[in-house]
Amino acid sequence: MTNPTLALPGAALLQPKPQSPSRIFWRRFTANWRAIVAAVVLGLIVLAVIFAPLLTPYERDAQNLRNRFQPPSAAHWMGTDDLGRDLFTRVLYAGRASLTVGGLSVLVSLIVGVTIGLVSGYFGGWVDSSLGRVTEIFLSVPRLFVLILLTVYLRLLDTPWAQPGTIGPIAVVIGLFAWMGMARLVRASTLEMREREFVTAAYGVGASSGRILLTHILPNVASPIIVAVSLGLAAAILTESGLSYLGLGVQLPTPTWGNMLSQTQTYLTTAPWLALFPGLMIFIVVLCINYLGDALRDALDPRTIVGKKG
Amino acid sequence: MIWRRTFLSLILLTAVVMSACAAPAAPAAAPATDQTAAPSEPVRGGAVVVGTPQEPGVLNPLLASSSIEDAISSLTIEGLVQVDDQGNYVPVLAEALPTISEDGLLATYKLKPDIKFSNGDPFTCADVQFTVEAILSDLSGASTSGYNRIDAVECPDDLTVEVYFSEVYAPYLRLFSYIIPRGAGDLTALDAWDFNRNPIGTGAWIVKEWVAGDYIEFMPNPNYREAGKPYLDSLIVKILPSREVGMQLLGSGEIKALWDITEADFPALESMAAQGVSYAGAQTGENELLLFNFADPAVDAPADASANPHPILNDVRVREAIQLAIDKQEIVDTLLYGNVNVGTTVIPNGTFACPQPPSEFNVEKANALLDTAGWTLGADGIREKDGVKMELKITTTSGNLLREQTEQVLVEMLKAIGLNLIIENVPSDVLFAGWDSNGMRKHGQFDILLYTTGPFLDPDSHLYQNYHSNNIPTAENEGAGSNYSRYVNADVDAWIDEAASITDVEQRRALYCQVAAQINQDLPRVFLYERLLLSGYRTELQNFKVSPGPSDFTWGAADWWLAQ
Amino acid sequence: MLEYLIRRLLQGTITLVAISIIVFGLASAYPGGIMNAYEENPDVTAEDYARLRAKYGLDEPVPMRYVRWLGSVLTGDWGNSFVSRRPVLQEIGDRLGNTLLLMGTALIVTLLIAIPLGVISALRQYSMVDTALTALAFAGNSLPVFWFGLLLIMVFSVWLGWFPGSGMTTLGKPFSIPDLLWHMVLPVTMLALVTAAGYMRYMRSAMLDVIGQDYMRTARSKGLTETQVNVRHGLRNALIPLVTLLAFEIPLLFGGALYTETIFAWPGMGRLFYERAVKGDMPVVMACVIIFSALTILAMFLADLAYTVLDPRIQLGKRKAA
Fold it and tell me: Is the pLDDT of residue A18 over 60?
């Protein structure tokens, strides 16, 4: 099980290696065939979403009320929806909003969560305990109130970028309520890291806190972050659908995978394909992201055993 | 849903057996036919579980604030006069409908003799007196409308009730829809009454056990006035997670009836017709409607819309063009499966029904109208006038499937006249919020709203609240009233006022019909289709009916029995 | 240690007060609230409206209302629900046990699934077992929760009729433990499958981190068996990040309770909170939030404690040694 060539913790970062880190990363990453498959599938989906107009003869919102609830057929690969629109077309276009919302909100939670986690784990003391209180408050305040109030006040603000139903506020809102887990994880890893030899050593030779945090601790807490990111992305895509119930989600007729899914519960028994395809898209995309995140984590991690692939 | 409290109307609808295309179940039958077709001899015994996605908080009508509370409490509590499944006022604890004096100031009720409450106390005129006292007491949460005009309730004898009014209350028949017994408790401790969750009444059912969040079990009232009823041994009201789950349980037979389904459930109902699922409905007199804002939404609650006109919607030609461009029949035929009527009038049914000719669907005419109004088509297909683009926001309650479908259909229909309709939905709490909570309706912060409202049995208060110029919410009146269009028409005001001062039905109807016709000319609102109050049930459950009144699906629960 | 405990207790109290102020403010600013129920009824007169506002104490300014609320809570009186008029503690008492039962069971089942599978997955990294488990975890993780719940009900309750789809007990039957367990199968399955996936990944990740550590090799060189090494040294250290996560997830479990209880009509706190928040039942909402927050704070504190126990190198509340 043990591998004698295994690098010592932290050593990978401190000692020069025969191969450049980026090449190691690439070699490890490409050796994982699942990650390759996931990357290809995800890439295809992203391309399809971007070039949706080229792939479908239908318009996104073109209705045909006399042609509602058609099961999948040659003319409509995924059938038609509750207003007779081509479901395949809507699913493609829906990816635009869903992927953007997912990506942006994870970025927000990543920035907030990692910063708070690193700072509070590294500095400890009153910094840690006050950030801990902030985290507790964010965890405790019911989202429902905040979200509904946001719909009220965003309406009153009436600025173009913050209209409810546009992507900006949704992403920020989702992100702002999703960083706490990330922060706690990063804090935990940082607490552990700061006691490690290479950190105390760096501290001893007079490296600044910022430098230690960025060059020594951050890369070593990367693996929990990556796992959290892949989970966060999935959650964000799903949360968006919940928000559309509160009027904070992307507004109709613009489709998202989330709002397509939540709208079709009523037809679960009579027209199951309405829920099936958007659900499947979320499932596939999130699955790919999970696999990619996993491969990334393995490839980035200096301690991973190399060359023992299944 | 809140607005369901405002049911109206007198017409009924009924237990319509699903006209299943494939299923041989039963042809669409009139209610009467349906009942006579059933086996004639009721079977005694058995337990029935009915489902509701909402849990009542209290079963005391003095404190009730939701439709489900009204419906469930009606199992135990009855009134002198109630609304039956046909939408008619019928005597329940009274022998007959009250007689009203010439001047409209004295109503006299004769009570049925020998009626006992579930705790054994006799029901007399003194209980009616107590009911008025209770409704008007400080801790009461009940609407005092009408009761606040009662000068005195006299009891010449135990079974005669004389109600003296200080001024004419035209919809007097709606009063005394529930009776609170003297023995209920001390009015200064109303909130702490046992009665609140275990009421004492004359109805067929009384609470046996209430497991919060799970179910309420009812058992027969031993003192019920009709011997041998209720037929069932036990009635359980089960709290369900959602309507979707309720529909599934209805299909599997775990529940025998499901409260409050919507028109969006028609396809699911149809698919379960073969499994013995049907629905009962009542016409409520409510319309699904578009409400236009006459005033500039950027101005906070202006009293006078003509001084702060809406840049697009203040022009009646624009409103008319919008109505002309909407194919209401298409919406009804497709989204509602042809099961409801197209909206034509503010008072579609009931004693005061005022049928109006249906609006025309004519896109050319709509376009011509907009051309003459000075709106010219831009390069992007959207009309413009004086640098203003014809873009309007439409807002409804988010998460409501049927409304969201309707909106999207409207978006497409209005594209044809160069109007860009933008959907911006909000949670129902935000849409229906009051003045103090920055309610968007109250403060006039919208272009077009889509929701349901209508008169409740008697159009008096609805027309007054929604179309009278006294009821434009402003800072001065602290946001009172529901005239959200900020619609002003002196004639309409006068007709509504006059109708409120008389009790003669024919005269009142004539006045209301003038109002209805005028509304269709001025178009503060466009009526899309008539709403139904629906509940699903299984066909083995006999005598299941829905009333448009407060008792809703529990109307006639004493007569329920299970066919084998 | 005692000093630390007292300090945390003090901090916790201050945080609780801060949360109560924030939530009270937010809930008061919430559009409509309890008065929304009367908004759409044309028969509710302006006088009725004013009388009801006064009855609920809504005619006072928000800070006054807060002080009044805090004052009565400090004397042990949590007030009466606006909706049911029952004492708040009675309302919550009816539900808290149900939630704890469901969530506790779900958590135990989750851990029983996640920890062993996560460890196996890590020890057999890249084997068939790992691949399969990973695929399973990822799949569980990628499922839309509410959709999955409805699916479970549809398949196992409606179609197959194996398990009840809602409630805690069979109506009309006397209470029995097997009946209760029967009703718990679907909600627990939903919660466990969805959350176990995440835990399993964290466990695998943490275990992989640990496997490569010096002390593992040291332990092996001391002649301990592979199992001893893995359990005594590996598992113990790998549990550290999981403990943090767990403590942190306990409050989230209550959030999850909302979904689960709503989908399965489980009469618990999550459903109570949601229903009453929507109806503007301030006394119940505030009590739920305070209980929930207190649990969150307690959980975070326990996590920190567990941390010191599991990893003696970490000293809490101390600035990094200079």
Answer: no
As a whole number of angstroms, the distance between CA B300 and CA B438 comes to 10
Domain range summary for chain C, segments of one domain joined by +: 15-74, 91-310
> What is the helix (H) or strand (E) element at residue B526, kind and residue range?
strand B525-538
pLDDT at B345 over 90: yes
- Domains annotated for chain A, with CATH where assigned, are 26-59+78-300 (1.10.3720.10)
User: B423 with A253: CB under 8 angstroms?
Assistant: yes
Number of compact structural domains in chain B = 1
C177 touches chain B (CB under 8 A): no
Instruction: Kindly report the pTM of this predicted structure.
Output: 0.81
Query: What values do phi and psi take at A103, rounded to 5?
Result: -60, -50
CA separation for the pair B384, B322 (Å, rounded):
15
Within 13 A of A254's CA, how many CA atoms are on the CB side? 17
CA dist B422 and A253 (Å) reads 9
Confidence of residue A13 (pLDDT cuts 50, 70, 90): very low
Closest CA–CA distance from residue C15 to any residue of chain A (Å) = 6
Q: Could you please report the per-residue DSSP string of B335-357?
A: HTTT-SPBP--S--SSTT----P
| Within-domain flag for B445 | yes
Scanning C131-160 for CB atoms below 8 A from A yields 131, 134, 138-139, 141-147, 150, 154
Listing DSSP states for B401-436 in one string gives: HHHHHHHHHHHHHHHTTT-EEEE--B-HHHHT--GG
Closest approach of chain C CAs to the CA of B194, in angstroms? 10
Of the given ranges (A229-238, B85-94, B533-542), which has the lowest mean pLDDT? A229-238
Using DSSP bridges, classify how beta strands B448-453 and B391-395 pair: parallel, antiparallel or unpaired.
parallel
Kindly tell me if the per-residue pLDDT of B421 is higher than 90. yes
Sign of CA dihedral C293, C299, C305, C307: negative
B288 is a domain residue: yes
What is the per-residue pLDDT for B546?
93
Query: Mean of the per-residue pLDDT values for chain C?
Result: 79
What is the Rg, in whole angstroms, of the alpha carbon atoms belonging to chain B? 24
* B427 and A CB contact within 8 Å: yes
* Partner residue opposite B251 with nearest CB, options C80, C86, C158: C158
Q: Is residue B311 part of a domain?
A: yes
At A112-137, the pLDDT tens digits run 998 998 888 888 888 888 888 888 88
pLDDT tens digits along B289-337: 999 999 999 899 998 888 999 999 999 999 999 999 999 999 999 888 8
The CATH number for B484's domain is 3.10.105.10
Domain contains B405: yes
Give the total residue count for chain C.
Answer: 322
Q: What is the ipTM of this complex?
A: 0.77
CATH 3.40.630.10 fits C91-310, yes or no: no
The DSSP result for A204-231, as a single string, is: HTT--HHHIIIIIIHHHTHHHHHHHHHH
Put simply, the answer to whether C307 touches A137 (Cβ < 8 Å) is no
Instruction: For C247-305, write each residue's pLDDT tens digit.
Output: 766 766 666 677 778 778 788 888 888 788 777 888 888 888 888 888 878 887 877 77
* Range(s) of the domain holding residue B321: 284-532
